[in-house]
UniProtKB/TrEMBL annotation:
Belongs to the GST superfamily. Omega family. It comes from the Eukaryota. Residues 17-96 form the GST N-terminal domain. It comes from Manduca sexta. The lineage of its organism: Eukaryota, Metazoa, Ecdysozoa, Arthropoda, Hexapoda. This is Uncharacterized protein. Keywords: Oxidoreductase. One of its GO terms (cellular component) is cytoplasm. Residues 101-225 form the GST C-terminal domain. GO terms for molecular function: glutathione dehydrogenase (ascorbate) activity; glutathione transferase activity. GO terms for biological process: glutathione metabolic process.
């Protein structure tokens, strides 16, 4: 599949009959749904969207033009990564990604909420550095400390258990991007291996999970995208190396 991001004027590719996820290759929220689809071994198509120059038809699947959006039947879609992932986990239960214990499910959701501060700090550091405050760095490291503590309390390889689950796939896309921050000069956001030994072990384990490994991008690649975004011309297609792809639609005729 081409890594090309479709934009204004591009034609919607024909529906193949599979689940279809509209995403952006560098979006952590879209990656959440990609990882869940991968973990459940589902067949699906990916269509990447240029979020600066959105194709007109994306609004038929996502009212605000945001990603991810999941087309589950021709012309019918749901949006928001958590809504999509809860739907997928209930619709395709063979590979369950949530605990059977209602309390643990609630605890996982609460932990995701408490980690939101670290995610916001990342976005500020990466895409709005002028607004960066010392409190942002503190919030970021507090999130990392809480995650490390939670891993130690649970005593398992992953937060979900011996295998990763919804909570891990929800957190991972941000952890993957956190490693890019020192490469763009935000050294105060570095994940020190001495201080965060348990967390680094967890991250190394996640990188080797098949669902993650097939979609993983290096810190260097994320840093290049962040830098291109900062110059006012986000390079959405930096990974597209295919000259011809069956998924690439023709331009509308003038």
């Amino acid at each position: 599949m081409s890594e090309k991001h479709l934009q204004t004027g591009d034609v919607l590719p024909p529906y193949s009959g599979k689940l279809r996820l509209f995403a952006m290759r560098f979006c952590p929220y879209a990656e959440r749904s990609v990882l869940v689809l991968n973990a459940k071994n589902l067949q699906y198509d990916l269509v990447f969207i240029n979020l600066d120059h959105k194709p007109e038809w994306i609004f038929n699947f996502s009212p605000k033009g945001t990603v991810p959006a999941l087309e589950y039947e021709p012309g019918k879609a749901i949006f928001d990564s958590n809504i999509i992932n809860f739907y997928l986990d209930e619709k395709y239960p063979d590979v369950a990604l949530q605990s059977s214990d209602p309390l643990r499910r609630a605890q996982d959701k609460m932990f995701i909420e408490t980690f939101a501060g670290a995610q916001s700090a990342y976005y500020t550091a990466a895409f709005n550095p002028q607004a960066l405050q010392p409190s942002s760095v503190e919030t970021y490291h507090k999130g990392l400390e809480n995650l490390q503590k939670e891993l130690e309390i649970r005593g398992t390889t992953f937060l979900h258990g011996d295998e990763p689950g919804w909570v891990d796939y929800t957190l991972w896309p941000f952890l993957e991007r956190f490693e890019a921050l020192p490469l763009i000069g935000k050294v105060e956001f570095a994940i020190d291996k001495t201080k965060y030994e348990r967390l680094v072990t967890y991250m190394d384990a996640m990188k080797n999970v098949p669902a993650v490994k097939s979609y993983y991008l290096s810190a260097e690649t994320h840093a290049k995208f962040i830098e291109s975004h900062g110059k006012g011309d986000a390079n959405y297609n930096m990974l597209d190396t295919s000259a011809v792809c069956c998924m690439r639609p023709r331009k509308k005729k003038e």
